[in-house]
Amino acid sequence: SRSGSIIVGHSMDYSVIDQSTKKITNYTQTCMGKPFPDPSINQIIEDSRGIIWAATPSGIAMYDPQNGQLETTRKILNVENKSAYAIIEDKKKHIMMAFDHEIWHV
User: Fold this and answer.
1) Per-residue exposure over 57-94, b if at least 16 CB sit within 10 Å of its own CB, e if not
2) Positive or negative, the Cα torsion across 38, 43, 46, 47?
3) Model's pTM, two decimal places?
4) Kind of pairing, strands 59-64 and 95-99?
5) Diameter over CA atoms, the chain
6) pLDDT tens across 49-71, in order?
7) In terms of C-beta density within 10 A (0-12 exposed, 13-18 middle, 19 or more buried), how is residue 56 classed?
């Protein structure tokens, strides 16, 4: 992450590891109490703006920890029921998402 912590997605949402203190904090919902669309996270990244993107079997979740806003693939891309496997941010700060047999650019 931008703070130097490590963000890890797993079968029960995600965890943040503080590298300096070695403290692990587990998260199962946003700061506003909203659950992620699927607790199983295939991959999770924090982009250059501080937005957290999670690839899940139920699609993509985009979470802004600054304001607690959580959006899903349904709102971001107007699609439903697509398993998401990977997310990257390229050098131009575009987000690329890998679904079943497709790669999407946001």
Assistant:
1) ebbbbbbebeeeebebbeebbeeeebebeebebeeeee
2) negative
3) 0.83
4) unpaired
5) 41
6) 999 999 999 888 899 988 888 88
7) buried
Percent of the chain with pLDDT over 90: 44
Q: What residues are paired with 17 via a beta bridge?
A: 6, 24
Which regions of 40-82 does DSSP assign to beta strands (E)? 43-46, 52-56, 59-64, 69-72
Q: Which residues pair with 79 in a beta bridge?
A: none
- Cβ distance 62 to 52 under 8 Å? yes
pLDDT of residue 2: 67
